[in-house]
Amino acid sequence: MQDYIMVQLVYLGRIAAAGLCGVAIGWERQYRTKAAGVRTHFIISVAASLMMIISKYGFYDAIGPDGTSVDVSRVASGILAGVGLMSGGLVITGKQGYASGITTAAGIWATVAIGMSLGAGMYMIGLFSTLFLLLGHFLMHKNIRLARHSWRGQIDFQLTNTKENMEEITSRLAENGIDILRMKCEYRDKHSERLRIVFAISTRLEREEVADIIAGIPHLCSYEF
Fold it and tell me: In the structure, what pLDDT confidence band is assigned to residue 141 with cuts at 50, 70 and 90?
């Protein structure tokens, strides 16, 4: 009986460790105002750990002297199949063809893997992976500018003198390294036109800084990226 209790306590410790790692990753995602936050990552990590424990230890009573055997990897593979559906739902494709939510979906996959590793008793790699992921998230955001960001979006302008306004706008975009992918001009009335530009930019600047650059371009009506 004492041995049974000790084994169960080990399992509970693995689930608790997985939950704490999920909270750590979820806190960072929630701090960045992402779709999946602390609660989501906590639940996913705990569930993955629990399913991994079931996969590894839950079928000992099915093994008998008659040669009955079980495949302990079946439940683990089912975890990955299930999380694929969840991660797919987090990815959103915008009107300009760019996708958002990919990092959050990848974080869900990573959290599941961490939960599985802790459920299997592989504490060292589970905890190291948690710290490594958190470090990577922080380094690749605005704390240290090591990575270039790539964005696509659209900007709408109101023009009164089409030729001169367009030359001024395209010049300002080029000065700031903003590439024009597509332009569309709509005639509103005989005195004004609306110009829509689909753009792309690759820079070490943060999103807020790019927004400030766009906001400073004359004749601006709206922008989205």
Answer: low
